[in-house]
Amino acid sequence: MYIHKQPHPIYSRQHFIAVVAQASDTMDSPVLFLLISLSFSLMSSSSSLDTIHEGTSLSIEKLEDILISPDGVFSAGFYSVGDNAYCYAIWFNKPSRGKNQTVIWMANRDQPVNGKSSKLSLLKTGNLILSDAGKLTVWSTNTQSLSSVHLSLYNTGNLVLKNMEGITLWESFDFPTDTLLPQQLLTRSTRLVSSRSQTNYSSGFYKLFFDNDNVLRLLYDGLDVSNIYWPDPWLVSWEAGRSTYNNSRIAVLDTFGNFNSSDNFTVMAADYAPKLHRRLKIDYDGDVRLYSWDDEGETWFVSWQAIQKPCKIYGICGANSFCSYIVGSDRKCSCLPGFKMKNLTDWSYGCEPEFHLSYNRSESRFFQLPHVEFFGYDYGYFPNYTLDQCKNLCLQLRNCKGFQFTFSQDDGFSKCYPKTLLLNGYRSPDFPGDLYLRLPKQNFFSYEKSVQDFTLVCSSKGTVQLDRTYKRSRENGIVKFMLWFACGVGGLEIIGIFLVWCLLTRTRQASSVDKQGYLVGITGFRRFSYAALKKATKDFNEEIGRGAGGIVYKGVLPDNRAVAIKRLNEPNQGEGEFLAEVSIIGRINHMHLIEMWGYCAEGKHRLLVYEYMEHGSLAQNLSSRALDWKKMFGIAVGTAKGLAYLHEECLEWVLHCDVKPQNILLDSNYQPKVADFGLSKLQNRNIENASFSSIRGTRGYMAPEWVFNLPITSKVDVYSYGIVVLEMVTGKGPTKGVDAIDSGGETEPKRLVAWVREKRNEATAMSSWLEKIIDPLLEGSYEKDKMEILVTVALQCVEEEKDARPSMSQVVEMLLRQEIDSHSDDHGVNL
Ligand SMILES: *[C@@H]1O[C@H](CO)[C@@H](O)[C@H](O)[C@H]1NC(C)=O
C-alpha cells in the first residue's frame, strides 16, 4: 500500500542540484554565488535566498526573510508555535497544503520569541544570535571568527555557518531536536528529544541517545522517574542484538532507508529504495519512526517504527495508572481502582489514591488486576512463593503498594515481586501475570465498583479472551473488567496500521478527532442518517430476520447496493460507546465474516448496515434442504476459516459465543459468512439482572462450560461449530428430530451429539455408521473420505472436555488436508 516507485527524473534533478550546491560551498566569490542562487531561485520559483552574510539580520516581521534551500525543499525561518510565540526553525516545504509544515529542527524550542521585533542576526564577530523582541538573546551559536562568515541552508536540510576559509563553525546537524535527516549523524554528544505534545514543540520526556555502554536506547526521562524502554529493559544488550564493544557511538540514516548504529542496530525501511525525502523522528508519543515522503500522495508515511505496542512506552500514564489499547486513538490511561487523576489535563502526572492506606496488616486487602504489569520498582524478586506467601510478604513490608504475581502452568514456577511504586503499568493479554493491588479493607468493594466503570463495552456473551480463563460469578467486577479489557485491546493490530494512518493524516487539529474520518479512510465504513436508512428499507418494510439483538430488514442504498439493516433493540448505550464498538466490528475484514458497511446512531436509533447475502442463512437453507454435499463442505470449511480468523488472526480475543445456523449467511455462491460477531457487546446487557440463560449462546449449540459455570474460552465456539456441522450433515436439529431409540426407554428426544456418538460406537465399520447418520436426502452422493473426516472433526469439536477439542485453525487444517490429499488422489487416478 505504501510502496511507491520513485520517479527517476526528480531523483536525478536533486542529485544534480546537490552536486552544484556542493560546488557552490567551495566558491567564495559572492558574484558567482549570487548567480547560482539566482539560477536556483528560478528553478524553485522562489525569490528567497539560501545564504546570508555577516552583518545581516532576518526579521520576524518580514515574510520574505526566509532562507530556502537551493532545491526549494527546506526553509529556515520563524515558525509560529503558539499565540505570538515563534521559534527559529527549519522545516520541509512539503506538504505544501495547509500551514502545518514538517518541522525538522528548532533553535529555541524551549524559549519561543515574541512575534514583534525578534531577529536572527549574523554578527560581524561571527556569532549567530536570536534576540527576543529586539533585546534579550535567547539563543546563539557561540561562534566567533576573524574572517567574514555566511550562513547557508543546504539541500540536505543542514543550516551551516562557515567562514571565508570554508571552515564550518556551526551546523544545525550537530544540534538535532527530534529529527534526524539522511546523512546527519547521531553521535555520542547528540540526542533526539521528543516534543512535549503534538502541538507543544518544547522538549518532552522521551530521548533517543547512546547510553554509557555504547548502546542506542530510548529513555523516558519524566517528572519523577527515568526509565529505559527500548530495547526491552529486561534484556541484556546481546539478547537485544546490540553490541557494547564499538565505542564510536555513531548512527546514521541514508536515503535508501537504512538506519545503522554502531551498536549493531540496523533498520531497513519497508520501502527500501532511494527516496527523495526521509526523516527519522522521535515522536511526542515516545516512539521512533522512520518517515518517507510520498510524492504522489503528498504525505509522509511511516516505513518503520521502533515500538509496535505503544503501551510498552513508559511514562505516558504516570504513577498508579496503566496503559491499554483502545479504538479511536492509540492508547488510553486508566487510574487503578481507588485512584484518581492528579492533573486532569496531563496524564504524565499519573493518579493519586482516594484513600488513606494504613499499612496495618489487618486493614489491607488485595485487588487482582489480570494481565496487568507494572514494571520495575520491586522490593526484590521472590521465586517460588505461593500467592498467599506473596500476599503475606507484601503485608509485612513497609510501604508495599501491591505485588506482581506470575504463575507458570508449564513448569509450576511462580514469581513474586512486591512493589514500592506502581509505575510503567500496562495491560496486555500477552502478559501472563497479574497485579495485586493493596487497598484498604474498608470500602474495598466500592473500589471494586470503580473498576466496573471501565466495563462499559462488553456483556459476557460477546467477546472474551481466547483460551485465557477468568473467574466468573464471584468476582464479577474482574470479569467485566477483563471483558472490557479484551475488547479494548481488540484493535491492537489494526491500531498499528491505524496509528500510521492517523499520524499521516491527522495534523495538528488533535482536539477535533473525527472517528468517522478514520473509519472511512480505512474501510469505506460510514455513518448513515436514520432518514437514509428508513428510505433504503422503505420504512422498514421487508423483514428478513429476527434475533435476540434486533430485527433485520432488507434495504437498497441509493447506489443500488443491497443491504441488510439490523435495527438493535432498546439501545441503552451512549453514542460514544456504541461508536467504539461499531468501529471494532467495522474493521474486522475477512471473506468469511460478514462485512459491516456502516451504522446509524441517532437519538435512540441504533442500526447496523451489512452487506446483503443473497442466499440467506444456513438455517433457512437447512430447513428448505437446498444444500448438496459440495456446498455443505464449502460451508463447513468457510465457517471454520471465518471463526479461526476471529479467534486467532484478527483479534485474538474475539469470541463469537453464538455460533448457529442462523448466524451463518450464504452469498450468491453459497460461500458462508459468519454474522453477528461482537454484536452482543452493542446490547449492553445488565449482567446482574439478566437470567443465566440469556447470557449464554443459543440452546442446543452451547458448550457445557456455560452450564457448568466453567471458564469460557474460544473452545465454546468450536463446540457450537461442531454442532452446526453435525446438524448440516445429518439434517437433524441439535435438540429435536432425533429418534428416541434409547434402551433406557427415555421419552425425551436424544441430543444430536449423543445420537451420533451412539451410532459410531455401535458400528463395526466406518462406512456403515456414516450411512446411518448422514441425511438420507444426500442419497449417498458425497465423498466418503471427506465426509468421514468432516464428521470425525465435528465429533472432536463437541467433546465435553474443552481441551480435547481442536482449535478453529486446526479444524481448517484437518478439513483442508483432506482436500489436498483427495486432490492428489484424483491426480493419481488420472495418471
Ligand atoms: C564501529 O561502528 C562504526 C560505525 O558503524 C564502524 O564504521 C566501525 O567499523 C565499527 N568499529 C568496529 C571496531 O567494529
Automatic annotation (TrEMBL):
List of residues binding ATP: K566
Organism: Carya illinoinensis
Pfam families from the UniProt entry: B_lectin, Pkinase, S_locus_glycop
Location of the protein in the cell: Membrane
InterPro entries: Bulb-type_lectin_dom, Pan_app, Prot_kinase_dom, Protein_kinase_ATP_BS, S_locus_glycoprot_dom, Ser/Thr_kinase_AS, SRK-like_kinase
Membership in a protein family: Belongs to the protein kinase superfamily. Ser/Thr protein kinase family.
Protein name: Receptor-like serine/threonine-protein kinase
PANTHER family named among the record's database cross-references: OS07G0415500 PROTEIN, RECEPTOR-LIKE SERINE_THREONINE-PROTEIN KINASE
Superkingdom of origin organism: Eukaryota
